[in-house]
Amino acid sequence: MKCIMDDLTVYTPSPPAGQNALVVFPQARECPELPPSGYAPLRGSAPLGRVMLRDGRSAWAVTGHALARELLSDPRLSRDRSHPGFLAPEEWSAEVGTHGASPALVADPGDEAPHRPPLPYLTPRRTAALRPHLQRIADRLLTGMERQGPPADLVSAFALPMSALAIGTLLGVPYEDHDFFEGCSGRLLRGRTVREAATARAELERYTGQLLDRKRHEPGDGLLDDLMRQDGQGSLDRARLVTLPGTLLARGHETTADLVALAAFTLLRHPEHLAVLRAGKTPMTAVAEELLRCLATPNGILRVAVEDVEIAGRTIRSGECVVFVTALINRDATVFAEPETLDWDRPAGHHLAFGSGVHECLGRNLVRAQLEIALGSLFTRFPGLRLAVPAEEIRSKPANPTSDGLLELPVAW
């Protein structure tokens, strides 16, 4: 299969299936920058089709942009992972090295208000204040890469640690503790065994408890500090504060790192688009938005119906799983002209990479900032950056319903 963004032939349909056969979800990407070719039949079922989950159940697949926006705001679709109809995390956790997410960010609106970080902290203005810190993180990591010399794995040397340290900075982790925080994050999310991940979580929670004690005497400027002030008013208890770093890492660390690595790979694969970026002919904000649309990480957004939903001439029954296939939603030709093409001049703000509605990703402004700073810093520091192996040898992660990324990205300069 050709790995070319501007070629409509990239969606090579699977062999004709039997009348009752369904497309399997999730599937791994054959080409990292493109949706799995096996999803091609779903385009013909837009905006609502059916897929087969890996546990043998069938589920609804939302592939149309307008319908996705409507259903993502529908309270009859829940993201409660404890619901028996939800696609269970254990179906994929063993393969990708994750061990489930804290319930703090997966409850429904009525239950989650005390758990989720307040929206005002992650506004564009507050995120802008973090940009100098994010720039220092990127510069430090790239200096380390430069000193070590090529080749380097851009995933482990840059994308993953930058994402972890960005979350640490958001929380208010002191600079001198960054190495510990990064190491603990790596073992928590990519530990080889459940025991290793559990040990890392315990270490992180113990550290966070000690950090909270320090901050009570020496307050700083971070999310933990803000929440501690609320905690003094009885809105949050210590146990929830202690588990917050693990929650944010579970929900935001690896997906952001995946995005940075996939974006770098895509730009290296398309030197004509990279040349425009390097020439400063287009704002980095526009580049980031178009890459968010095209790369569409994560693979899907998951929900479960808690009531019957009559929509698009179909009935989604209570208890049925619903998958929002973001890779197809963000390539809906009724919304995006020439959706297979990278277009830095495309109007921003229409993609659903961060979801929509009450559960739209709270960290979206921070993710945007990381992507812009990471790419700008990377290609400025290494103007001769290139893939160190043929593109066909770059391996994607195993099929995962909520994350798409690269196992590694060898580069040289």
How would you explain this protein's 3D organization?
The chain is α+β, with helices and mostly antiparallel strands. It has a single domain (8-412), classed as Cytochrome p450 (Orthogonal Bundle), CATH 1.10.630. Helix content is 44%, strand content 10%. The chain has helices at 40-43, 65-72, 93-96, 109-112, 124-148, 154-171, 178-190, 194-217, 223-231, 238-269, 271-278, 284-295, 326-329, 364-381, and strands at 23-25, 48-53, 58-62, 77-78, 152-153, 300-305, 309-311, 314-316, 321-325, 386-387, 410-412. β2 and β3 form a beta hairpin. α5 runs parallel beside α14 and α7 runs antiparallel to α8 (194-217). It is globular and about 60 Å long. Belongs to the cytochrome P450 family. Residues 101-126 are annotated as: Disordered. Pfam families: p450. This is Cytochrome P450.
Short characterization:
The protein is an alpha+beta fold. The protein is built from 14 helices and eleven strands.
Named CATH architecture: Orthogonal Bundle
Measured on Cα atoms, how large is the radius of gyration? Answer: 21 Å
User: How many strands appear in the DSSP assignment?
Assistant: 11
The residue fraction in helices comes out at 40-55%
Number of helices: 14
Please name the fourth-level CATH homologous superfamily: Cytochrome P450
Annotated CATH topology: Cytochrome p450
Low-pLDDT regions: 1-19, 89-119
Order of helices and strands: EHEEHEHHHEHHHHHHHEEEEHHEE
Number of spatially distinct domains: 1
Structural class: alpha+beta
CATH class label: Mainly Alpha
Strand percentage:
5-15%
> What shape does the CA trace take?
globular
The averaged pLDDT comes out at 83
Distance between the termini: 28 Å
